[in-house]
Fold this sequence. Notes:
This protein is of the alpha/beta class. The chain is built from nine helices and twelve strands.
Amino acid sequence: MKYFECPKCEHQIFFLSTECRHCKYPIGYIASEKDMCTFEKVSEDEWVPFKSDYRATHYKPCYNYTHYQVCNWMIPSDSNEDYCESCQLTHIIPNLDDPEVITYWRRLEVAKRRFLYLMQRMNIMPRPKRHDDDPFGLRFHFLMPMDGKPVLTGHTNGLITMNASEADVVYRETTRINMGENYRTLLGHFRHESGHFYFNVMQHLHPELIDEFRHYFGDERQDYAAALQRHYEEGAPENWQERYISTYATAHPWEDWAETWAHYLHIMETLETAFFAGLRVDGNGRTLASMSFKECPIGGQDFEHILENWVTLTFNLNALNRSMGLEDAYPFELTEVVKDKLRFIHRHVLEKAFK
């Protein structure tokens, strides 16, 4: 995540904020500029940014910014759209009669916007589906379980369904423990499920890459339902850590891809944050390299350097967490086999395989 500065008072402003903490002016994110800005409010639907180099001179807040405070994205004031690029992707939301559900919806939208920010930075921002069979569009359904009917988080044909109960911290943590997972977050769900979507995009745009995909991840043509049933009945194979990033990645090549894709996104945004923070970490000169940056990781050409930085950063993040009595921030290990899968993803992100 980039660091943003208020053009009015020059203090740092944050991606999820709606007001500058210092000068108290309202804040919004302008997706077309990939930038946060503070605004002078002329009226409720006419906000003037404190920057003059944007493509538009006047903006209005997204409908969900004004009416529900679950968004902080802006739209050019002359646009016919009432919803921003992020909210246009949300097709169904839970019933908002329950105030607690509004809180869940807000948390889902926060995680979704952070996911979309990175997609913008990587120049692969999804657009809304134009029709049910549109292979290049995406939509989200946020659903609450009703009348004993469960909601399964997952992806099908450009539709990502999220169980809104995942926004309940107690529910999510209980599920994490029951599933034997060492990591489970809303942002992680968005990144994992988006992996299935982007695999479909790659398959449509560049079918010639599928043989290379199968070399790293396996043959995705095997029966998916049978593979999942086997996984849940038998668990991960012995020594799974040598070839996979997680136990769930062992279930099927599609899940291996989605899990690895999610970790690639974890790496890119976390290292981008470290890059803009100006962080540097000295290694021990033997087994741990020093962390420094010669370029922004997003779009970076030297992926080996990116991987070295990630290993050093996560080692120290975990050490800091342990000093606070917390669980590891990144409880995973990147073997060379997993790194090869990440290299495949990075190579084809740079080569526009998903565009």
